[in-house]
Automatic annotation (TrEMBL):
This is Conserved hypothetical plastid protein. It comes from the Eukaryota. PANTHER family: PROTEIN COFACTOR ASSEMBLY OF COMPLEX C SUBUNIT B CCB3, CHLOROPLASTIC-RELATED, YLMG HOMOLOG PROTEIN 2, CHLOROPLASTIC. The chain crosses the membrane at residues 21-41, 61-83. The gene is ycf19. Keywords: Chloroplast, Membrane, Plastid, Transmembrane, Transmembrane helix. GO terms for cellular component: membrane. InterPro entries: CCB3/YggT (IPR003425).
Length: 99
């Protein structure tokens, strides 16, 4: 096996790993946001606390960038869109563009 083939396989594994991670994290954020709409979920018990502790640091990066409208915070939409953009960029990358 030559080094080019090894690099191609390594790149594909890394690309798929990143895509899987970002898609899974996007799902976690969606679950977290859905959970906030239902008041009967206690965010301080497991597994909801774990979900909040995994997603809140990322969501805090976008909080305040978009002003709340009628008391609704729309900044998580930016967070989800940013992850979607990263997914599209990673999806479009090829080995030829890297070299």
């Amino acid at each position: 096996m030559d080094s080019g083939s090894f690099f191609n396989q390594t790149f594909l594994v890394l690309q798929e790993s990143l895509l899987t991670f970002f898609k899974f994290y996007n799902l976690l954020i969606t679950l977290r946001l859905t959970m906030t709409w239902f008041p009967n979920f206690n965010p301080f018990v497991q597994p909801f606390y774990l979900l909040a502790s995994l997603t809140d640091p990322y969501l805090r990066l976008f909080r305040g960038l978009v002003p709340a409208i009628f008391g609704i915070d729309f900044s998580p939409i930016l967070a989800i869109l940013w992850i979607q953009c990263l997914i599209e960029i990673i999806n479009e990358l090829t080995v030829d563009q890297i070299l």
